[in-house]
Amino acid sequence: MSIDVGARLRGIRTTFGLSQRELARRAGVTNGLISLIEQNRVSPSVSSLKKVLDGVPMSLAEFFTLDLGTPPQTFFGTDELVELGNEEVSLRLLAAQRPGRQLTILHERYAAGAGTGDEMIVHRGEEGGVVVRGRLEVTVGGNTRVLGPGEAYYFASQLPHRFRNVGRETCEIISASTPPSF
């Protein structure tokens, strides 16, 4: 089975809402090259195709396996978030099955007194969040602060950190981190 690289590139480009000119600008190639590939008038080398796909961004594997008939899910119901935590600390992940996901977005709930544990967490990237309700103690490096509704945090995840609900009610947070940690 042969893959129509030109049609596939055109389908991906339009799915991502990019003009030929915009994709060319992002990839650092001429829009003429994009046009020639899409018309199958030139067969790109693997390295040329990879350079073009970096403008999306997308890996070669994703290019050849992405189902263009079914666009990635955009909207999610409450029951479509994937639970990664437990009864004490609920971590509900948005878009768990999205191919090439570059971001982790969580709806977090901490029961009264619950937290991520005594051991500090360290991983690459950045993370941030907004407290929706309750009170959350956030420790980053040697700094600790208790945050309430509407207050937020943002830090480099390489710094040792942990979270704990210091209130009497459930604490709720919307958080994001990159690169994806789940």
Structural features, described:
- This protein is α+β, with helices and mostly antiparallel strands and about 180 residues long.
- The chain folds into 2 domains: about 5-65, Orthogonal Bundle (434 Repressor (Amino-terminal Domain)); about 80-180, Sandwich (Jelly Rolls), CATH 2.60.120.10.
- The protein has 5 helices and 9 strands.
- The longest helix is centred in the N-terminal third of the chain and has 11 residues, at about 5-15.
- The two termini are about 35 Å apart.
SS class:
alpha+beta
Helix and strand string, N-terminal first?
A: HHHHHEEEEEEEEE
CATH A-level architecture of the largest domain: Sandwich
Cα radius of gyration in angstroms: 21 Å
- Which topology of the largest domain does CATH recognise? Jelly Rolls
Counted by DSSP, the helix tally is: 5
What profile does the largest beta sheet have?
6 strands, antiparallel
How much of the polypeptide forms β-strand, as a percent range?
Answer: 25-35%
On the 0 to 100 scale, the average pLDDT is 90
Low-confidence stretches: none
Which outline best applies?
elongated
Whole-number total of structural domains:
2
* Name of the CATH superfamily of the largest domain: Jelly Rolls
Describe the secondary structure blueprint for this structure:
Blueprint: H1 5-15, H2 20-27, H3 31-38, H4 46-53, H5 60-65, E1 82-83, E2 89-93, E3 104-110, E4 126-133, E5 136-140, E6 143-147, E7 152-156, E8 161-165, E9 171-178
Antiparallel strand pairs: 1-2, 2-3, 3-9, 4-7, 4-9, 5-6, 5-8
Helix pairs in contact: 2-3
